[in-house]
Specification:
Helix content: 40-55%
CATH architecture of the largest domain: Sandwich
Strand order of the largest sheet: 1-8-3-6-9
Strand content: 15-25%
Largest sheet: 5 strands, antiparallel
Oligomer: single chain
Structural class: alpha+beta
Order of helices and strands: EEEEEEEEHHEHHHHHHHH
CATH topology of the largest domain: Jelly Rolls
Number of domains: 2
Length: about 300
């Protein structure tokens, strides 16, 4: 039996937000759990929608845009609209999989551009046990809501589908760092206060003074609890948030690198450039040029 915990949504931040994705921009086509017996196969085919496919059990041969692979249990594939794919079960054991098929609008693809710009071989990922549990439980909830047929059920199904795609995007992006508790741990008030301070500092660095760590005598204990809860240190979270904010400003604003450095609380442009290069492997100016090249 799969279990799932919804995270609390706390509206406390003043960080500029991108355009919100309308739930209706993602439309469920079909969600199904399938058992594939020995020598069963689905030949190469395409369809006019996207599909997420998770191998829950067994080792089928999967054909997709990057070739053919023997997929291990727990492997997730994203087949995009118009891409040929297929599978067969050459072994003696049965294969079980979840298939989630959905339609996306042009706006959706822009919102999830980091996902849809990935090459086919990067749209394959071996999920952890917790990720598999989350994916399967979301599919189960989608199927139940979609099968109920009511208006509220349709809204709930769209919400589950949106959250599913958000999670998959985070899992597939190599640079993504999960900052969310696993839903089973009690939130530590001091950890949450520090999490909140970090986000507020990134939103308004010049109004808070320097963001200092380690002055509290109990900081080592707090840092250990923070890392256990969020999977990253306070300093690493601060750096990641600053760099992601820098990328957003580079992509969407006309600010110079010097102005962005000042916006993020850096006293010198060089400090931002050095941190950005360490985080992304490229300079802010080079990254902006590459990002603009992906715009539709």
């Amino acid at each position: 039996m799969f279990t799932y915990a919804l995270y609390p949504i706390v509206n406390i931040l003043s960080l500029p937000k991108p355009d919100v994705l309308p739930i209706a921009a993602l439309t469920l086509f079909r969600v199904s759990s399938r058992v594939v017996v020995r020598d069963d196969a689905v030949g190469w085919h395409t369809h006019q929608h996207d599909e997420l496919c998770l191998i829950v059990e067994g080792t089928p041969i999967i054909g997709y845009a990057a070739g053919k692979v023997s997929a291990e249990t727990g492997t997730l594939f994203l087949f995009m609209e118009g891409e040929a794919h297929g599978f067969r079960n050459p072994g003696g054991a049965i294969v079980r999989l979840w298939s989630l098929e959905f339609r996306t609008s042009a706006d959706t693809r822009r919102q999830f551009r980091e996902l849809f710009e990935l090459s086919p071989h990067r749209r394959v990922l071996k999920l952890s046990a917790a990720q598999r549990q989350s994916f399967c439980n979301s599919c189960q909830n989608l199927a139940l809501e979609d099968g109920a047929g009511g208006n509220l059920n349709a809204i709930a199904a769209s919400a589950w589908l949106t959250l599913q795609l958000v999670n998959v995007t985070r899992w597939l992006l190599a640079h993504s760092k999960a900052d969310f508790p696993d839903g089973l741990q009690e939130i530590d008030p001091k950890c949450f206060e520090l999490w909140q301070r970090i986000h507020q500092y990134v939103a308004e660095p010049t109004s808070h003074g320097p963001m200092l760590f380690g002055l509290d005598p109990c900081h080592d204990s707090l840092r250990h609890r923070f890392r256990k809860l969020f999977g990253t240190s306070p300093q690493a979270m601060l750096i990641r948030l600053r760099m992601e904010r820098a990328k957003e400003l580079l992509r969407t604003s006309m600010l110079s690198v010097k102005e962005i450095a000042n916006e993020l609380g850096y006293s010198r442009q060089h400090d931002l450039t050095r941190a950005f290069h360490k985080y992304t492997g490229t300079s802010p100016s080079e990254w902006k040029t590459q990002a603009n090249g992906f715009k539709q």
